Amino acid sequence: MALLKAVYNLLWGDLVQIPLPGGSTLGLSLLVMLLVPAGVYFTVRTRFLPFRLFPEMVRLTLEKNGGGERSGISGVQALIVSTACRVGMGNLVGVVAAISAGGAGAVFWMWLMALIGSSTAFVEATLAQLYKEKDPLYGGYRGGPAYYLHHLFCREGSGKKRSVIAVLFALSGLICWCGISQVTSNSISSAFENAFGIPPIWSTVILVAIVAVIVLRKNATVKVLDRLVPVMAACYFFITLFIILKNAPLLPGVFSRIFAEAFGLRQAVAGGIGAVIMNGAKRGLFSNEAGSGSAPCAAAAADVSHPAKAGLLQALGVFIDTLVICSCSAMIMLLTPESLTNGLEGMDLLQAAMGYHMGQFGVVFIAVILWLFSFSTFLGILFYARSNVAYLFGDNWLSQTLYKILALVMLFIGGLAAYQFVWDLGDIGVGLMTVFNMIALFPLAPQALASLKDYEQQGKKN
Asked: What residue range is the signal peptide (predicted)?
């Protein structure tokens, strides 16, 4: 436990304290110091890709697949899988927690992290495409950071089957996703108990049974997510849009509050500007997962005509997660009178806000949408795990099935009780994934940038 705590503090604790006006300090964790400069660097190197190529990202979601046979999933399906993982409990409870701790100004910094994070997402997803391999078990392709880390540290023809850094990344991913499995089911059982009074044992058993039927079949995961993710995201978006339109006269005040508190003199004088910046930055960075190496596991599986297409689609995924879904949660909360939410936190706070806007229907809706978000997240992380399990243990159904069973066991345990040890283990896993992934991104980035240049040149010719 002491070792885990030390690693956790190294990754997530404030390693550097920067003094700010009013006596506040800006605490920078190792992960923030890695991801923010990387996002800025890749944004500049891609010539501000999030702004220049946003129309192209949207166009790719509408692009026809062509008449040829596809080996594996489409680029849009890979986007849906990664969106399923990005859109989870963090988009609901995490955003609420960020605003509770950092105020409305945290939303601005959350948006800013999405803009720079999308460039990082492009680079890692394009590299995953460049180093993808045929998948003999599931068909199509597989890949991700473990595979491009392998190529970085093991020269072609060396005969080495595994790289130490790649193995560490793969292990970190599997540990992280086991932790997320517990968090997922615990959130679902808690929300259903609050909304419907259903005992955790029943909601957990039903969840595990449904998930097991899907994940233990060979290729059912992508088919289910293909139908589920667009529907659940659209439902949450349109319900939020209804709430926004109903409270339209309050919008100028909300946006004024967001920008005023993001740079506000009052926050600086009160010593709280550091909390405003860091709560928004951390929520933006770790909700959209850019740089963590998760989404490339889905991007590698895409069968696209050019590697940069997968990169652009994953960059769009960052926008969907943060600028759309996270902003929905922020608006629901900021349009609720503070007097109704004082003293509340987490799911209780969000359900109280929805209850204010839409009555009992709002409380039930949040419980159902959290179930869908968490359910799709679990399916998505098991899709990610395929490539890491294959890298560690080779191509065999035994190892693939055993990991799925382990994740299902964690899902069941988490629904009945929350173990802080496992939660921390998940946080450590994603932190280590990010560190190992960033080791590869900078030296291999020129290949992703060359791919982007080639893609744009082809576009001009056509």
From this structure: none
User: Residues 131-151: what's their mean pLDDT?
Assistant: 90
Residue 75 CA to residue 306 CA, distance in Å, equals 10
Residue 200 corresponds to which tokens in the numbers above?
A: 């955790």
pLDDT for position 268:
46
Indicate the DSSP class of residue 342. Answer: T
Please report the pLDDT score of residue 88 as a whole number: 66
Distance CA 187, CA 423 (A): 12
Question: Distances from the Cα of 36 to the Cαs of 30, 381, 439, in angstroms?
Answer: 10, 24, 15
- What tokens were used for 373? 């978000």
Sign of CA dihedral 237, 240, 242, 244: negative
> Dihedrals φ, ψ of 27, to 5°?
-85, 125
Please tell me the distance from the alpha carbon of residue 398 to that of residue 264, in angstroms, as a whole number.
57
* Cα of 399 vs its chain's centroid, Å: 25
Half-sphere exposure of 142 (CA within 13 A, CB side): 19
DSSP label at residue 73: B
CA–CA gap between residue 382 and residue 413 (Å, rounded): 17
Q: How long a stretch of residues is the chain?
A: 462
Residues 198/188, Cβ–Cβ less than 8 Å: no
Which pLDDT tens digit goes with each residue over 52-65?
Answer: 999 999 999 887 66
Give the pLDDT confidence of 424-456 residue by residue, as tens digits.
777 788 888 999 999 999 999 999 999 999 999
| DSSP state, residue 326 | I
Query: 26: which residues sit within 8 A by CB, 6+ positions away?
Result: 17, 18, 20, 273, 274, 277, 278
Q: Which residues pair with 26 in a beta bridge?
A: 18
